[in-house]
């Protein structure tokens, strides 16, 4: 039902659509409330049976939770997102605890193995494996991004080691790039930066912050980002471990560009990973530096990010760039604001969606706060 009503949402919120928009939003809120009630009842039944006895039902509930969370964030953002994300995180951890044990640390791959069916083709995921892999990927991404907002270590960082071990010969248990278009190692670096930010905050509160150690820790992360960017400059955006075509990427590319023309895949992949790298470096600089040095280095990083945004020609992909845009926008200098506004204008067709609308609001509020400080 959410997909049906989502298709009815007027993207044009201009004069003349008020009545239609109001009626649609009322129905959406009713459906969202009904869906949340259904999830709560399913969760109660699962608690009564126990996650350890209900792997299949647990996976279905996790999928429903993530769909509900995604719908809320995209359409009707509220202060409940953290509660709902924590609930999904808790269920994921229980699934791993009861069905992912292969040693001292639960493994995502073990859950996928336990979801396998003897009659299913060995080289293909069944529906439950696919659902768990897809929605768990979204959950880990949401956990990483929320950690940057809440200034804390990602709750699911324990499971990042399994993703870091995925190499050229090993199919990753989860595919974060399939969801965001950004290679997983960049998202893991962002998680490392949020951990560094939390460490810095704790050290400052205790009066024990060592600038030398902070710079050392930040430099190791920056080196990862720098070397990754060099690889992209040499080989392009295609991750060497994933040469095959990605279904979601192909679908979004086919949906076309702002000008209505489909994206020409022969021209190479969209520079999504590059954008995330520059945004991650901007985030890292905001944690690492201060004073005049911060201003000069940040301006360079912001300029690199805004230039990369200009290379994105496929509108559907822009929805996944809310975090990079937000980081870029709030750290932009006054002189760089027109470039950021240009990016925002290119995304205006998506302003009805919660994540994009929230990004615009955050950037504008930060700029207003900065202007007020400058005028003092």
Describe the structure.
- This protein has 376 residues and is an all-alpha fold.
- It folds into 2 domains: 22-114 and 127-174, no CATH class; 193-240 and 268-375, no CATH class.
- The protein has helices spanning 2-8, 18-49, 55-75, 81-99, 108-114, 127-150, 160-165, 176-180, 184-206, 211-235, 247-254, 272-288, 291-309, 315-318, 322-330, 337-346, 354-375.
- Helix 10 (211-235) runs antiparallel to helix 12 and helix 12 packs across helix 15 (322-330).
- The longest helix has 32 residues, at 18-49.
- The protein is globular.
- The relative contact order is 0.07.
- Mean pLDDT is 82; it is low at 256-268.
- One of its GO terms (cellular component) is nucleus.
- Residues 253-263 have a biased composition (Polar residues).
Which series of helices and strands comes N to C?
Answer: HHHHHHHHHHHHHHHHH
Rg: 21 Å
Number of separate domains? 2
Tell me the structural class: mainly alpha
Instruction: Give the low-confidence spans.
Output: 256-268
Helix content: 55-70%
Please, what is the average pLDDT? Answer: 82
The beta-strand count equals 0
Taken as a percent bin, the fraction of beta residues is under 5%
Number of helices: 17
Shape verdict: globular
Q: Determine the N-to-C terminus distance.
A: 52 Å
The largest sheet is: none
Organism: Fusarium flagelliforme
Protein name: Fungal zn2-cys6 binuclear cluster domain-containing protein
Pfam families: Fungal_trans_2 (PF11951)
GO cellular component, one term: nucleus
